[in-house]
Every structure is written in C-alpha cells, then in structure tokens.
Design goal:
It is a single chain. By secondary structure, the protein is α/β, with parallel strands linked by helices. It has a single domain, classed as Alpha-Beta Barrel (TIM Barrel), CATH 3.20.20. Helices cover about 40% and strands about 15% of the residues. It contains eleven helices and eleven strands. The strands form two sheets. It has a nine-stranded parallel β-sheet with strand order 9-8-7-6-5-2-1-11-10, with helices on both faces. Strand 7, helix 6 and strand 8 form a beta-alpha-beta unit. The longest helix is centred in the C-terminal third of the chain and has 21 residues. The chain is globular and about 60 Å long. The two termini are about 20 Å apart. The mean pLDDT is about 95.
C-alpha cells in the first residue's frame, strides 16, 4: 500500500519511526532489537536510512597511510525488504543523491520495483565528512528534486537509455524532507521554502521534517508552507535526546536550536542516563502536544535505541 494513501486516509495521528541499517559486519538481529519492541504500538510504516560512502585512512604495517572508500552502514535494500516481509508492514527506504550516479540510482530503483518496494523518501543526502561542502557525484544529481524527477520519469516508463523498447513503468510514491529551521545550505528560509515547493510540484506526496525540539518551529513551518501553496501532509519528525553530548552535537550537525528550558535541564545532567530521562520526558511532552494538534503522524528517529521510544509511545499512543 502507498504510504501517501495511508497518511491521507488516516482518522487519527499515526505512529511511524526510522531505523538505521547495522554497521558493516552487524546482523539483522540488531534491527529486530529496534523494531520488535515498537510493534505493539501499530506503526503505520517504517523508514530505513541510506548511507553514502566516505573516505577513510588505514596505516599499513610498513607505516604507509592508505586512503580508501568505505560505507559504514551498507544493506539498506536488504534491511528494507527483510523488515517489510518479516513484519508485514510498509517500509520506506531512503534514496539519496549523495555518492550515486544517475545510472546507479536507476539500477537501485529497478531493484526496488522488482521487490515491490514502492514507497521512497527522496533526499539529497549528506556531504562527505572530509568535504567542506556537498559535492555532486560525477554523473549524479545535485539536488533531491532532480532525483525525484528521475523517479517520476521511471513511473512514466522513461529510463535513462531512450533506446529501451517496451520499458515498464514503475509505481513509486515519494516523500521528501522539510526543514522547520531551514536547511543549512539554504541562503534563507524563503529560498528553502521555494525549493520545497519545487519538490512538491515535481511529485512529492508528503513531507517529513528534520528533527526539532520546539513545536512552535513546526507549527510556524506548516503555516509558511500553506501560505506558499504547499498542500501535502507535513509529518513532524522528532527524536529523544539520549546522551549528554547531544546538547552540543545535535545543534551543530543538524542546524537546529534547543529551547532554553530544555537545554538548561540537559546541562544539569551528570550522566547519560540522566540526559536520556530528560530527553524522553521532553519528547513525550512534544508528542502529546503534536497529537492534540491532530498532526498526520508522529515520526520518531530512533537511532537504533528503542527503549526510550517505547516509553514515549506508551504515554502518547
């Protein structure tokens, strides 16, 4: 079933969440550890992240330093398919521009089509850690809207090789990301909103937001989207803080702000367990307010840690 239809036909606020593929060398049991405690809350669908390759360095026995490319979390396709068919739930794999050519993207889309994975979240993806800014892969897409247009072309049976005869149309339904506190690469909130409208006009059927910790940021973002003519559902994405260092790391990595009251309480914490408790309480408060506002769904970024999400869901769903 199309996730866009699940959202559109919902009569109450849905629960959805996101998982990470295990680190290379890990097993699917790690994914089971995240998913299974959350099944009792009837998630409407699960997102699976996709990760680009990055540059790493290894020192050989002779002292020589070798530069190589590695992907820390491969297996997005396998995790998505295994989760869908093991748990009989819709799964939304992320598909990204970063690190992929258009041809590689087309091949991945063909795999998803064969596997009847028809829901996608379309993203630009992150820059390499070693790069100061996002660099487009040679032969790849620079922006999520370009990737979205490639997917929409395939839905019409238009492949990269125009000489293909009797090409089979795909049937993908796509969501995209939105940024309540503005994407870090955007020159302004107004420009960011224009880019989001472009993605919706190109075929995006719903929006999932970047994490935020101040619900007013989300409500203001939705209002601005509606004023800009964006009418698709806008799903709030939220995350529980789990460690002491996230009070500094999350704002830096994701270009977001922490409410003064929340930050103050986190900085009082002496241990990760204390920070995790404060983070869980804050997310519970956020989720209850969002639910009272009848948001389409509450999408939780689990980062592979289910126990605090279970506590939130028991209070909210």
């Amino acid at each position: 079933m199309k996730v866009a239809d699940i959202i559109k036909n919902a009569t109450k606020t849905l629960f959805t969440f996101e998982i990470l593929p295990p680190l290379k060398g890990g097993s699917f049991h790690e994914i089971e550890h995240t998913i299974e405690p959350l099944l009792e809350f009837c998630p409407s669908y699960i997102n699976v992240t996709s990760h680009r390759s990055d540059i790493a360095y290894r020192t050989k026995a002779n002292g020589e330093t070798v530069r190589y490319t590695t992907k820390k979390r491969p297996g997005s396709v396998g995790v998505a398919v295994a989760a869908k068919f093991k748990y009989n739930i819709e799964v939304v794999p992320h598909i990204i521009c970063a690190g992929f050519t258009r041809d590689e993207t087309e091949d991945a889309l063909i795999d998803y089509h064969f596997l009847e994975m028809n829901n996608l979240l379309v993203l630009r993806g992150d820059k390499m850690k070693s790069d100061p800014a996002f660099v487009t892969e040679r032969g790849g897409h620079a922006h999520a809207v370009d990737l979205l247009r490639q997917i929409q072309n395939m839905n019409k049976g238009i492949y990269l090789n125009s000489e293909i005869e009797n090409s089979t149309p795909t049937d993908f339904s796509c969501g995209v990301a939105g940024y309540p506190e503005t994407h870090s690469d955007a020159k302004s909130a107004e420009q960011d909103l224009l880019y989001l409208k472009e993605k919706v006009d190109a075929g995006a059927e719903y929006i999932v937001t970047q994490m935020f910790f101040d619900n007013s940021k989300y409500f203001d973002f939705v209002a601005h989207c509606r004023q800009a003519g964006i009418t698709v559902p806008i799903i709030p994405g939220v995350k529980p803080v789990t460690t002491l260092n996230q009070v500094d790391v999350l704002p830096r990595l994701f270009s977001l702000t922490l409410p003064e009251e929340f930050e103050k309480e986190l900085r009082k914490c002496k241990t990760n367990d204390e920070a995790k408790h404060v983070g869980t309480e804050w997310l519970t408060m956020q989720a209850l307010e969002l639910k009272r506002a009848n948001v389409p769904a509450i999408h939780i970024y689990t980062f592979g840690i289910p126990d605090n999400v279970v506590k939130v869901c028991k209070a909210v769903f």
